[in-house]
Amino acid sequence: MAQLLAVLIDGLIYSSWLFIIAVGLTLIYGVMKILNIAHGSLYALGAYSAASLAGYWIRQGYPPMGSYAVMVVAAILVGLVAGPVIERGLLRFMYGKDEIVLVLVTYAVFLILEDFVKLVWGVDPYFIAQPYGLLGNFTVGDLTYPNYNLVLFGAAVFIGVVLAWVLTKTRQGKMLLAVIHDREMSAAMGINVGRVYFITFTVGAMLGALGGALTAPMISVQPGIGAETIVLAFAVVVIGGLGSLPGAALAALLVGIVRSAAVHYRPELDLFSIYLVMAVVLIMRPKGLFSAQEARKI
Amino acid sequence: MAIVLEARGLNKSFGAVTAANDINVALEQDAIVGLIGSNGAGKTTFINMVTGYLKPSSGTITFGGRDITPFNPRQITRLGICRSFQIPQLFNTLSVYDNLLVGIGIVVSGGKNWAEASHYVGTPGAAVDGMLERFRLTDYRDKLAGELPEGIRKLLDIAMAMAVKPKILLLDEPTSGVSADEKLTLMDMVMEAVRAQKVTVIFVEHDMEIVTRYTQRVLAFYEGRVIADGAPTVVLNDPEVRRYVTGEIPHVTAGDKHAAH
Amino acid sequence: MKRDPTLPILIAGSIILLALGPFLPRWAMFLINVSLCYGIVVLGMLLLMRTGVVSFGHGLYYCLGAYAAGTLDQVFKISDMAVMLVAAVIVTALASAALGLLLRKYRDIFFAMLSLAFSMILYGLLVKTSALGSSDGFNVAASKIAGITVAGTAVDRYVRYALTVVFAFIAGVFMHKYLNSHMGRLAEAIRDNELRVEYMGASVRNVIHVNYVISAVLAGIGGALAAIAVGHIDPEMAYWTTSGEFVFVGILAGTGSVLAPLLGAFIFETIRSFAYEYSPNTWQMALGITMLVVIMFLPGGLWSLFTRKRKAA
After folding, report:
1. Measured on CA atoms in the order B242, B247, B249, B252, is the torsion positive or negative?
2. Is the CATH code 3.40.50.300 the one for domain B3-260?
3. A282 in helix, strand or coil?
4. Are A5 and A144 in contact (CB under 8 A)?
5. Using CA atoms, how far apart are residues A218 and A130, in angstroms rounded to an integer?
6. Which of helix, strand or coil describes residue B18?
7. Distance from CA of C257 to the nearest CA of A (A)
8. How far apart are CA B242 and CA B36, in angstroms?
9. Cβ–Cβ < 8 Å for B166, B158
10. Cβ proximity of A159 and A23 under 8 Å
11. CATH node for A2-284
């Protein structure tokens, strides 16, 4: 019984993390039909920036609780800089090309940013553990968890709710949904698709960086975290249905619980339980859990 | 004359829209049949069902006595039923020569369940050149299909349907998009090629002159039903056909009635 | 009727490489050897790209081929190169025949993602298998070929080098003939208009499946040859970034000719080796920038430089 509880709690924590790293990716795909491999680099940039800035903040003796705000600010800054640079500086010229070509462009950006990170921060790992332990722990029965995990969970829920509200209740959000549904028709109706792309990519970049920033206190920040994370984000996005936010949430939940079960009962399956889920889901629903209908061709 | 293709009780609905409503049609060997009807009347839906692209909601389609209703386009093509498309479906990045060569290559390499239609003699290349000549496409031999003028694209689309040796050929609006003076030349060419191969032809057409000139039998569609079936002159003079298809008798639809009040 | 120089170049190239071999410095022999191993894998990517499909998981078969060779040596104490290659072919053929049953139903992103997933599953399995060295992998000592011991002899390196050259030649000739046959044309037709292909009586899924298996076997052969050449294998061969490199080289080279992947792989490996030596923290960046340049200015890959020149002549 205790083990089941552990599986559930660990699962929820991992699901929260998966949702945060995947939501930006699915948003960008939904609107722009680009599978942004560079999302992994933004995650890494977010993690490194947060580690550096928060580390500096704490070393300078400022109130440690402020380090959380610093981390979030770092992520937002990364998104606000990297997002426009990549979108306006490069992607914008590639729209209209084949989907797979755009993926390769983002792969090239990923490669470039991976080395950029090494050049700026070096190859040694960064540790920024204080924010993780600062909030104390909570216990459930015999199990103890750092309260930081609640932050993660809370962040995931907050992001999900805010995005859902913005997309369905605000005018800008509905325009985004329109572009997701049918880009050409939206343009014909007068929606400035270029501006929508810009905003979407920047928001997506911020979310990716935020994922990295929030994770930084829990890991050793080192080269390679981007590559590891992007494949997991992909899997969640594909399982949930490309471009679907509720899909990403459900997929994150599903994968989180399954992986948690694997870790507790069959550790050798841990690393690839997510891919097993993807294979099973795709077999049953070839386009993911929530997928769009296609019109007749002939 | 032997019945070669028969549709019995075909129905097809897409949600609230009825695209086919109890269609019963029996086609004879070597017949040349025209399908007429306004857009949305169900002609293309009929072709899509016969060729396996759509499954009817109910009803059966038999070919030479064999039930082909559950078959997919590939299986139906291999049995000998081929079609051309309203929007030509070509291999745009291949040359005209290669477009036909692919088709003939498929026939030549085909397995046991390929149509019993006679296979090609001589090399596939020679067969392609023969087809190019018959359809007067030789000048376009090395051009990419994506760079062809619209009329030639339609011609190639039909030639490709013929390349896989059909027993029944379904042409979906073969002359649409073709200029008025070229329509007759196109149809003459197609019919000549068809006669040489003993094929049953069904084609969808909006031009009534072409229908009267080339068909022996006409089926008129309206709202998913076949409202007339017989010789061209008889069908074209049918009052319902004149009202709902050719528009010679104006008719008031439910929408008009509302507007009037 | 333009004459295609591919076959003569393949023949001439192989003869030259085999003849020059004994005179080449060790690093050059090794570089050519490893490049051609990669090139053989990319030949498979070329076939898939011509069929309109991009696999982001061919590291799976590259790794399977290498580990088939390695397992024969480590576990069964069979260190014969010929046997290793046969094993690689069998293992990858069976694996791809099975996985192909599922993959053939998907296209675009889904095909890419599923293929990636399968390769990551293998990666995960290998990393957790301590008997196979976990993430460190293990050494492979291929010491014989068809019964004749070469390890320790003066011709050791040359034999490995020649083996790869010969296989690259065979793979190149096979792929050239295959792409110019009906199956090759059918593959391109599928890439262009799948609906039309079905409506002409061919099975799109069957062709994709067959081409998938062929490309997988090529990747397996490349992997086994790499194991023989390098003497060490690890799960990294199945990691998605390895698969990404195969895709990268495929795009870089272009699909114009079977010579393109072989040449492209050589250029890639050369840049990688030198860039890594001089600046290990920027070679990925160099790769990324090169890829962007190629995508933007040479959409047909580097090979289109050659075809453009010939057209101008």
Report:
1. positive
2. yes
3. helix
4. no
5. 10
6. strand
7. 20
8. 11
9. no
10. yes
11. 1.10.3470
pLDDT at B252: 62
Q: Which amino acid is at C103?
A: L
∠ CA C147-C150-C152 to the nearest 5 degrees? 140
Q: Give all chains having 3 or more CB-to-CB distances under 8 Å with chain A.
A: B, C
Helix (H) or strand (E) holding B24: strand B17-28
Tell me the shortest Cα–Cα distance from C197 to chain B, in angstroms: 8
Residue C232 pairs with which residues in a beta bridge? C139
Alpha-carbon span B191 to B174, nearest angstrom: 11
Which whole-number Å values give the CA distances from C30 to B157, C157, C229, in the listed order?
52, 8, 7
Q: By the 8 A CB rule, do A196 and A177 touch? A: no
Q: Which residues of C touch B108 (CB under 8 A)?
A: 182
Instruction: Provide the b/e sequence for C37-50 (b: ≥16 CB within 10 Å).
Output: bbbbbbbbbbbbbb
Of A112, A115, A282, the CB nearest to C114: A282
* Rounded (10°) angle between helices A171-181 and A193-215: 100
| Closest CA relative to residue C199, chosen from B70, B160, B154 | B160
pLDDT in tens, C15-70: 999 999 999 999 999 999 999 999 999 999 999 999 999 999 999 999 999 999 99
Token pair for residue C245?
Answer: 């490199």
Q: Are B148 and B180 in contact (CB under 8 A)?
A: no
Express each pLDDT in C277-306 by its tens digit.
Answer: 888 888 889 888 988 988 888 777 777 766
Q: How far are the Cα atoms of A32, A38, B70 from residue A102, in angstroms, in the given order? A: 10, 11, 39
Which three-class secondary structure state does DSSP give residue A140?
A: strand
- State the nearest Cα–Cα gap between B51 and chain C, in angstroms: 9
- Retrieve residue C199's tokens: 């409506």
Q: Could you tell me if A1 lies within 8 Å of chain C, comparing CB atoms?
A: no
pTM to 2 decimal places: 0.90
Answer whether B123 touches C (CB < 8 Å).
Answer: no
Q: Which chains, if any, share at least 3 CB pairs under 8 A with chain C?
A: A, B
Label residue B98 exposed, middle or buried (CB < 10 Å: 0-12, 13-18, 19+).
Answer: buried
Structure-block tokens of residue B194:
């068809």
Strands B200-204 and B32-36: parallel
By C-alpha distance, which of B201, B243, B209 is closest to B223? B243
Of C188, C192, C199, which is closest to B83 when you measure between CB atoms?
A: C199
> Is the C-alpha dihedral spanning A99, A100, A103, A108 positive or negative?
negative
